Amino acid sequence: MNLKSIEPLLQVKDLSAGYAGSQVLFDVSMSISSGEVLALLGRNGMGKSTFIRSLFGLTTYMGGSIKFRDQSIAQQASFKVARAGLGWVPEGRQIFATLTVEENLMASFKRFSSISRIWHLSDIYELFPRLAERKSHYGNQLSGGEQQMLAIGRALLTQPALLVLDEATEGLAPLIRREIWSTLLKLKGTELAVLIVDRDLKSLSKLADTFLVLEKGQIVHQGLGLELYTDKERIEKYMSV
Length: 241
Ligand SMILES: Nc1ncnc2c1ncn2[C@@H]1O[C@H](COP(=O)(O)OP(=O)(O)O)[C@@H](O)[C@H]1O
Ligand SMILES: [Mg+2]
Prior knowledge:
Blueprint: H1 3-6, E1 10-19, E2 22-32, E3 37-41, H2 48-55, E4 60-68, E5 71-72, H3 78-84, E6 86-89, H4 101-107, H5 121-127, H6 129-133, H7 144-157, E7 162-166, H8 174-187, E8 193-197, H9 201-207, E9 210-215, E10 218-224, H10 227-230, H11 232-239
Parallel strand pairs: 3-8, 3-9, 6-7, 7-8
Antiparallel strand pairs: 1-2, 1-4, 4-5, 9-10
The chain binds adenosine-5'-diphosphate and magnesium ion (MG).
Adenosine-5'-diphosphate is lined by residues 19, 22, 24, 42, 44-50.
């Protein structure tokens, strides 16, 4: 076996972080390998988004290390983290309302990739035919589902080695949710690694290789994706209020 392939892509050790004066994450350690889909679970307010924001240097750093490939990315500016190969689909999508779908996509297009695959505009239209139909529409004319597809397309065009999705299916109609899940399944089994926050355990069980549960900023449980199905009741207890 090639030694390089078993080295984790992202390795976080004892990460503590939060917001000025209030610590949210306590010694969080985790890793993701190339091609792995990892689900990050936990109730509202447990620190999932804070963990993701910490990867992008957007929280107050309080200790620990974040390594992406051979590079330390702790406390780095977001654009540098993105350049290192992390693509982010943030909570709330954050697309440009006054740019068209195509302009939104092209605004994030990067010509170079650190993995073998390069995403082009045409690949995104193939993945989400609805975006091709809407390519001249402005961001603010899109439905919630279309905005989410656009946010995913934009993240892919940054040519990430790790795609990070925070509550991507939240608040969407069932049909659109299903479309997003089936698109994510298409991305699985490629070199792309995925870190996904969502509360739909059933859909996650088909997608995730591994999962972690955060409670009050600490990892309290972890396992294989399959357990999200076979051990659903126990894991649901971590998710309910
Ligand atoms: N910008 C912020 N400033 C201060 N506290 C915050 C901020 N954002 C989130 N928090 C607090 O951090 C904790 C974790 O929130 P968050 O990471 O958003 O949880 P989750 O994504 O798991 O729902 C919560 O107690 C929340 O109130
Ligand atoms: Mg959140």
